[in-house]
Write a structure and sequence with these properties.
Number of helices of chain A: 11
Largest sheet of chain A: 6 strands, antiparallel
InterPro entries (chains A, B): ADH-like_C (IPR013149), KDD_N (IPR058932), NAD(P)-bd_dom_sf (IPR036291), Zn_alcohol_dh (IPR050129)
Keywords (chains A, B): Oxidoreductase
CATH class of the largest domain in chain A: Alpha Beta
Largest interface: A-B, 58 and 58 residues
Oligomer: homodimer
Number of domains of chain A: 2
Pfam family, one (chains A, B): ADH_zinc_N
CATH topology of the largest domain in chain A: Rossmann fold
Protein name (chains A, B): L-erythro-3,5-diaminohexanoate dehydrogenase
Organism (chains A, B): Sedimentibacter acidaminivorans
Structural class of chain A: alpha/beta
């Protein structure tokens, strides 16, 4: 076997010198290098922003969706949406393990895993698209993929249904980062709290703030709030438009007696929500941006523009133990497990 | 006087409901609201990315630069470059203070200040452009501007020349955040370390890491490194291309005995430097992005793509005491003061 680079740079075709994620085209030849893992793919969980774009472009037509998806992979060697830049993840079965990884990996041939690195950097071949589940952005295929040595993954648990695990793992970074950031007694606001990542953040925040803390759930529509209210995941529920910073600020001032929040987690998958999060945060507080629709410059110049000394964090999709944290929620809470099964699995 | 909103939303013309910074057009009528401050403007320090774009568009012609700048302000009511989205800052003299601010501000009529909020949200009128100093992005004008109640500023010190103070205050957030992040014994890498913000970061990092720490200075050209080397601001000097993540990773591995860095500060004002910073950081280390050329998605997906558990921070241009921290460097170090006077004042 040929020797590979841990980050997969040996697969980059264009432009030379970059990593697989920013590359325009990577090599998806399925003969593995010595530090790669070959996966027999079962299901792609396409990133929500990406799937929405593809589905819109196809006018909702399933055959056209298939055609667009196959076209992307044929052109780039990976399923990276050229409009949104994003990917998704996959589940499949280990088919072959590179010789250099022997004794270094806990995986063996036949294990079923979910890859936790983005499809936007994963070498992929689609032979056939078997089924498109439009409501949950999942696509069953016949095909193969490569996991690089630095690529992260989770073995699928035997006690959680596969599609549920896949949906939850897709946003695993959010609840795990919440655990790292929330302290007892904190006032925590989650924007976009009724979505797939937002609900998991609420769950962890509610556990950690304790009786002296306060968790505020904000979503666009009253009907979305009802869904969360039924689960008792927050202390306060607010409906409002997260792109309207002044409205959010005034509502949060009201429910915090003018004190604002120690931590604001932004999970809204629409643009222009940076300022709402900043204005709702106390001086010296923290804003955690998990949404991929966040603009770096809008956040940086926005905080300066209103003289807010807040710590702003870029949502890293990975943190140690994030897969376990997310799956554990499904074990702990039957109510959440039922809801996620209904909505996303 | 009419009552104003602390964030200046009363000045927003289009689109309605947003803050002055993201607004396309704001009201630059110079009759002040009760919580505003009127400034007689002397000099604009245009943001470096913005000035480069304007100068390029004008083919370097000073009269055309003037025309473009006046056009921007006429159209938007503020000097926000429509291509880069960025602004800059200004110095001027207080001409009038709104009645609602009496007893609430330490400013008085006649004080000379630098505004520390971006020009991209500051109501501005340019009557005449008196001088364009192309080498340092500074433009002397006859005109007026408005500071909002939430707007931050610094009184110009009497012991530092005005143009030097203006240049240093422009990047004041960077050294102040460095002070907050560096711990004794840390290994710190500054990317783009020979630039205006990078050198100030090096200076603070070198003071704080102590004899057990290590400060690594990286810049594109050997000639840039020489400038910093002469000042003794780092322990290790590396020339390299910050857009080539693998090259940066290998060089940093070498000079840190394979341990990588506790903190990486990215001050490179070109795109595609996110991955260099991520790969050069230890697991559990911190990346501080000060450059406005940073892409949120490239950082977020990039860290996940290589399975790096790093804390990534969006460079907030403001933190408490940042103006004092930056000006103090000019008082402490004659060598830096001389260099900044030569290059930027």
């Amino acid at each position: 076997m040929k020797k590979g680079n841990p980050f997969g740079t040996h697969r980059v075709i264009e432009p030379k010198g970059v990593l697989p994620q920013p590359a325009i085209k990577i090599d998806n030849n399925m003969e593995i290098y010595d530090n790669e893992i070959l996966i027999n793919v079962q299901t792609l969980n396409v990133d929500s922003a990406s799937f929405t774009q593809i589905s819109d472009q196809a006018g909702g037509d399933v055959e056209k969706i298939k055609e667009i998806m196959k076209g992307i992979v044929a052109e780039r060697g990976k399923h990276q949406n050229p409009v949104t830049g994003s990917g998704g993840m996959l589940i499949g079965t280990i088919e072959q393990i590179g010789t250099a990884l022997e004794g270094k990996t806990d995986l063996k041939v036949g294990d079923k895993i979910a890859t936790l690195v983005s499809l936007s950097l994963t070498p992929l071949v689609i032979e056939e698209i078997l089924d498109v589940r439009k409501e949950i952005d999942q696509v069953d295929i016949k095909g193969k993929a490569i996991l690089f040595e630095s690529g992260i993954y989770a073995k699928l648990p035997s006690d959680i249904p596969e599609n549920l695990a896949l949906s939850v793992l897709d946003v695993a970074g959010a609840p795990a980062q919440t655990v790292k950031l929330v302290k007892e007694g904190d006032t925590v606001l989650v924007l976009g709290a009724a979505g797939k990542s937002g609900i998991l953040c609420l769950y962890e925040a509610k556990k950690l703030v304790g009786p002296t803390g306060k968790v505020i759930c904000m979503a666009h529509r009253e009907s979305s709030l009802d869904k969360v209210r039924a689960l008792g995941l927050a202390d306060v529920y607010i409906a409002g438009d997260a792109t309207n910073a002044i409205e959010v600020y005034e509502k949060v001032m009201e429910v915090t007696d003018g004190k604002l929040c120690d931590l604001v987690i932004s999970c809204v998958s629409r643009p222009n929500c940076e300022m709402s999060a900043i204005l709702a945060t106390k001086d010296d507080g923290t804003v955690y941006y998990f949404s991929m629709a966040t603009s770096f410059t809008k956040a940086a110049l926005g905080a300066e523009g209103v003289g807010k000394d807040v710590n702003m964090i870029i949502g890293n999709g990975y943190t140690k133990g994030h897969a376990d944290t997310a799956l554990q929620i499904m074990r702990e809470s039957k109510a959440l497990s039922d809801l996620y099964t209904k909505l996303y699995a």
